Structure to design on (376 residues):
């Protein structure tokens, strides 16, 4: 269910209001997740400037290269009544932005730029707006994006179902005698087949590689008794990401302490999900995941935060980490992904996406969380 024109109109109004409240003169947003959130426009920033200019007092405008103007046909942008300020090659788009911002009479003193804006644009805008300080747009936009509306939650639910279907088929590809890279290529293709527009990441960490949380794939051949961490995800057509980890074993694990440690990991993941509720802080959820693992002396082997927010980016706010005293609210979506990593031997992780509901958490991933033993 794509977001409607009303949704984007509402988001633009809320973003402008937040810009005013922050005391900023304007928000400058280049292509990326923020622009997709505000206007429904996908794509990346190039060397030619595309930029939403959202003044705190005044009407928004979209600066766009003339050759990309036809590409806006059929997008929500044309229905939003924005001024489209196109510029031909050879013109100065930064001067165009300065002109749009100067319409009200006084030049801007403080603007927020999209966090992912390329430095080339940031510095050129700085030069075009002398005396104007810059800050990050996340100060204004993250509080809006962090709470998902019903259409966004529906998109995340669909993403979760799509990646669950890929994990359900893992036995087709993850077999003894194949390399991690061969397995990963098949998984990547299935990520697309099952409803994503791309495979954003495919981690197949077998044997000792499972002890490296962000391992990619390699030419290592999967062997009987290997424990294998498979962490996969990608964006759906609406732009919302899946991200789900399951840990597999090719037959019974060769290492003797796997069953015992894995049971602790599963308890940790359950404890963290159970801790999620409106008003609970992000760091309390992190602590809940750490408790059972620390209790058996493996705290040092859980070497990353418990989770990250997810939406139009794979990693976004809220971060579920010690020191983050943000109180959770209904509509926030994030991963719960504790892991145990024993260097040189094996590792395991269990990752689900959850959405905060009125009293707790709704899991968006539903594959069994036990160690999945595949036939050898
Ligand atoms: Zn990760
Ligand atoms: Zn993941
Ligand atoms: Zn994750």
């Amino acid at each position: 269910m794509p977001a409607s024109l009303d949704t984007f109109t509402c988001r633009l109004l809320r973003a402008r209001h937040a810009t005013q409240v922050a005391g900023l003169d304007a928000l400058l947003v280049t292509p990326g997740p923020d622009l997709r959130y505000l206007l429904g426009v996908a794509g990346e920033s190039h060397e030619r400037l595309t930029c939403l200019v959202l003044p705190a007092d005044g009407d928004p405008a979209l600066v766009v290269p003339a050759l990309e103007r036809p590409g806006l046909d059929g997008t929500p942008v044309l229905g939003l009544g924005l001024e489209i300020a196109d510029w031909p090659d050879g013109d100065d788009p930064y001067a165009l932005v300065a002109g749009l911002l100067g319409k009200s009479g006084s030049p801007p003193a403080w603007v927020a730029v999209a966090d992912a804006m390329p430095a080339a644009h940031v510095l050129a805008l700085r030069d075009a707006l002398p005396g104007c300080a810059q800050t990050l747009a996340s100060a204004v936009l993250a509080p809006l994006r962090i709470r998902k509306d019903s259409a966004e939650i529906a998109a995340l639910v669909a993403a979760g179902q799509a990646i669950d279907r890929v994990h359900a088929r893992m036995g087709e590809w993850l077999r003894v005698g194949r390399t991690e890279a061969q397995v990963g290529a098949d998984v990547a293709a299935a990520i697309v087949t099952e409803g994503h527009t791309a495979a954003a990441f495919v981690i197949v960490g077998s044997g000792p590689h499972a002890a490296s949380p962000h391992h990619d794939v390699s030419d290592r051949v999967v062997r009987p008794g290997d424990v294998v961490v498979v962490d996969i995800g990608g964006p759906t057509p609406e732009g919302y990401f899946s991200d789900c980890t399951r840990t597999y074993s090719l037959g019974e694990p060769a290492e003797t302490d796997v069953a015992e440690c894995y049971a602790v990991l599963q308890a940790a993941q359950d404890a963290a999900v159970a801790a999620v509720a409106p008003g609970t802080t992000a760091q309390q959820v992190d602590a809940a995941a750490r408790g059972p693992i620390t209790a058996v002396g493996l705290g040092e082997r859980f070497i990353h935060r418990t989770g990250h927010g997810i939406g139009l980016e794979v990693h976004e706010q809220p971060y579920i980490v010690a020191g983050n005293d943000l109180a959770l609210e209904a509509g926030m979506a994030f991963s719960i992904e504790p892991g145990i990593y024993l260097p040189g031997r094996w590792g395991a992780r269990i990752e689900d996406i959850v959405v905060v509901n009125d009293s707790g958490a709704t899991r968006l991933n539903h594959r069994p969380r036990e160690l999945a033993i595949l036939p050898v």
